[in-house]
Specification:
Length: 382
């Protein structure tokens, strides 16, 4: 019998959001923890377990969870592994699905975090009714989920859709956390915006509100706060970022001709500061065949709900775990056989040798072992 709830978990590079979701797609309760707080993955899973258990207890949902779905960066839907990631503090590969399953005693299914967001958007958000779209997540890193003909594109190994690691600058490109240079993620993530700010401040001389912040502590939020105060340098940083993202979207359009690009994540909260230069750059760079056919829109899901709901959808695919196998020790086997022999004696199915007293042996001997075998054989022949 199916259980009424699933758990959806969105593992980001900065925060891990999770929620209890019912069959109608309502997030009954949600919370979050810091992803990189622990240097050991097992400590992270322990904290996650404690936080989710609190939610289950508060909502009378203990024992009522069908499965757990997780959206995690650079993870494979097929293997449940995080193979390699630039934005998590633990050595890879990480057998995430198995670790979570073992800890919770509930089957866990893992997919890429951007894929999870795309599934949530397709089911509950701006992509409802769309069969061809690309979800771009702009957070600590840049992720993507590609949907073609209504189906998520996983590729043969489950890793399709790492558009954040398409190289945008092949000459003098920034070092990316993946180990290559010039990746989209190095420019258009929240970290990328902060890196652009630091570079501009070092090579430019004009005044800026950003100069009041220690250069190594600048974040994308700081750039946004200065931009809405009409700081020229901060606004130029968003134009630079949007230009690169628009070029990337124009290139992405050529391989799947999506109905829409849906942008999701913390950076999109910048609104027109980022969206205006993205659209302008896209229009300048799009192949004529595709001009005017693809929308660039923002996610309609609030905060982490798209990723939580998308991940939770995978939770419904989970099956109840089989009971643990019964492991018999030699002592347990001998005790069982001893009881069996006693039972046979009571029913007068076997005659014991002279050195055996009722209920127990004087001494465990090979004769006793042979007698048990004789007893079993006698019963079998009966």
């Amino acid at each position: 019998m199916a259980k009424p709830y699933v758990i959806g978990i969105d593992m980001g590079g900065t925060n891990t959001a999770f929620g209890l979701v019912d069959a109608r797609g309502n997030v009954i309760a949600s919370s979050s923890i810091k992803t990189a707080k622990h240097s050991d993955i097992n400590d992270y899973i322990d904290e996650l377990y404690e936080a989710i258990t609190r939610i289950l207890e508060e909502n009378n949902a203990v024992g009522k969870v069908q499965g757990i779905g997780i959206g995690a960066p650079n993870s494979s839907y097929y293997t449940g592994m995080i193979e390699d990631t630039a934005n998590l503090p633990w050595p890879c590969p990480i057998p995430l699905a198995q670790l979570i399953t073992d800890k919770f005693g509930i089957q866990c299914i893992v997919t890429n975090d951007a894929n999870a967001a795309a599934i949530g958007e397709m089911t509950y958000g701006a992509a409802r009714g769309m069969k061809d779209f690309i979800m771009i997540t702009l957070g600590t890193g840049v992720g993507s989920g590609i949907v073609v003909n209504g189906q998520m594109v996983y590729g043969h190994d489950g890793f399709a859709g790492e558009l954040g690691h398409v190289i945008m600058k092949r000459t003098n490109g920034r070092m990316c956390g993946c180990g290559r240079c010039g990746c989209l993620e190095a420019y258009c993530s929240a970290n990328g915006v902060a890196r652009t700010a630091r570079e501009f401040l070092e090579i430019r001389k004009e005044d800026s509100l950003l100069r009041s912040i220690p250069i190594d502590e600048i974040t994308s939020k700081d750039v946004y706060d200065c931009a809405i105060q009409d700081d020229a340098l901060a606004k130029e940083i968003f134009e630079y970022t949007g230009n690169i993202l628009g070029e990337a979207l124009a290139d992405f359009c050529t391989f799947s001709s999506p109905e829409a690009f849906i942008l999701f994540g913390g950076l999109t909260k910048s609104g027109e500061l980022i969206m205006k230069p993205v659209r302008e750059s896209y229009d300048r760079n799009i192949l004529r065949n595709f001009k005017g056919k693809t929308k660039i829109i923002l996610s309609e899901m609030k905060d982490a709900d798209a990723a939580i709901l998308g991940a939770s959808a995978r939770g419904w695919e989970a099956k109840d775990l089989p009971p643990p196998p019964m492991i018999l020790t030699y002592g347990a086997i001998f005790a069982w056989l001893h009881f069996f022999v006693y039972f046979c004696e009571k029913n007068k199915w076997v005659k014991y040798p002279s050195n055996h007293k009722k209920g127990r042996c004087k001494k465990s001997t090979s004769d006793d072992a042979m007698n048990v075998g004789t007893c079993l054989g006698h019963v079998y022949n009966a």
